[in-house]
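Contributing new records

If you add data, match the layout below exactly. Sequence lines come first and carry their own label; structure lines follow with theirs. Keep one chain per record. Anything else will be rejected by the validation script.
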Amino acid sequence: MELEKTSVQEWIKRRVHAVHERYSAFDCLVENGISDVPDETTPTQIKCPFHGADNKPSGRYYPRSGGRPSYVRCFKCKKNWDGLNLYAEFRKLRFMDALTDLERRYHVKVPRRPDVPDFKELSDRGSGYVSEKWADVPLVLKLLETKLARLRDRCAMSDYVKFCRLLDHVAYDYDKLEKSTPEMVSALLKLRGRMDEASLVTDDMFAFEADDHP
């Protein structure tokens, strides 16, 4: 399983690198009407595009350096955004949707996805069949709560809140009915997929460490 996850991570990493070659943080700032940065190669103090007015600019643009793409750092938000993440933030898109958008926009050839088997419920025992593993809703809830705790500081807060709410809804329904239903199992399966996706795209290879000073 760890090898499969690594293969998908590498696949996404290659796609991200290809987009960074075509689209930079500077490009995104310019197309969104932010003209504080004079050119693509000059580090510049700027206003944060997202959190509102400051007494003084709390953001800084950093040009490409070595293998690292250009990016914007906000010392108030304590966040960094490269071109891809800026694009996603401006358009309120999920990371993978933003990646796909920019691939289409710049006609980036997407490498073949590694063959990773998906977990699927068996379908040859009738439409109401639920495997023993996923029918044990209390156990699955505990497993996903543990997984969510590990994701708390690695995924967007909006996603984290959605994950929590869905777990709460399923737990409430289970307590009320005192039994599992196919709908509960389906919801938990979808939730696990969303968590896995969040884990992949916010892996350390994509995360920026907070800078100690501007």
